Amino acid sequence: MPSFKVLKGTGRANVSRFSFETFDPESSRECGLKSSEASSPPEDSAEAAAKNPLDELEELVRLRLLEAERRAEELEREAYQKGYEQGQRDGYAFGASAVEKVRERLDTLATSLEQMHQQVLREYRHWLLEAALTLSRHLLTAAVGINPKVLESLVDHILEQMDQSQAITIVLHPNDRDLLEKHGVLERWLSPPPLGQSPFRVTVDSSIQRGGCRVESALQEIDALVETRLENLREVLFSHAS
């Protein structure tokens, strides 16, 4: 019984008879060379047989992947550049639009402020004028107490407008009279007048507000009370404001 097992085989092959001819060393060597040349494949065929089709497919796939990656990078750079340029255009357009909106809002605000200013003047001008007149009254009263020259100049101006051939009476607040006397103003007014002029006389009236006076004669009467002067100023201011 044989010690091996045939896994794959074929039927008995046709065997042909081999005839041994005369052995000649030279002929045997030539035959060996011919047999070797006939049995050895060409060099190109050996190299071709050495290449594995799977290796060629893998190399082809690798080249295709490299080409795809290179193309993807080019597309990415191109898309980035286009996006950047478009972003610049969009950003400039957005910025210009935003600036224009701000300018329009500022113009609207300036117009509204101008209109508000005019409206405030229309609604509060009377109040502002009355407040100014009230402040002027207090300032005038305070100014006389500090500087009697204010009242002295007022009376001197009125006396210049009077007919001094007539007897003239100056009516003052008692405190103003004392102040003018202290500063020597009454002494000048009550001194003997030049030839052709009548002497002055000074009296007091506590109902007169400080800083004001009345100057009277037989022919003239000048009202220089603080209230009267402020009322005249008020009429002028309100006539221009209307």
Q: What is the molecular shape?
A: rod-shaped
SSE arrangement, N to C? HHHHEHHEEEH
What structural class is derived from the secondary structure elements?
alpha+beta
Q: How large a portion of the residues is in β-strands, by DSSP E?
A: 5-15%
Number of helices: 7
- The helix fraction, in percent, is 55-70%
Tell me about the biggest sheet?
4 strands, mixed
Rg, Cα atoms, Å: 66 Å
- Rounded mean pLDDT score: 75
Short description:
With 242 residues, the chain is an alpha+beta fold. The chain contains seven helices and four strands. It has helices at residues 25-39, 43-50, 53-146, 149-161, 174-182, 185-189, 226-241; strands at 168-172, 200-204, 213-216, 221-224.
What does this structure look like?
The chain is an alpha+beta fold and 242 residues long. Helices cover 66% and strands 7% of the residues. It has helices at residues 25-39, 43-50, 53-146, 149-161, 174-182, 185-189, 226-241; strands at 168-172, 200-204, 213-216, 221-224. A hairpin with a 4-residue loop joins strand 3 and strand 4. Helix 3 (53-146) packs antiparallel against helix 7 (226-241). The chain starts with 24 loop residues before the first helix and ends with a helix. Mean pLDDT is 75; it is low at 1-15 and 33-39.
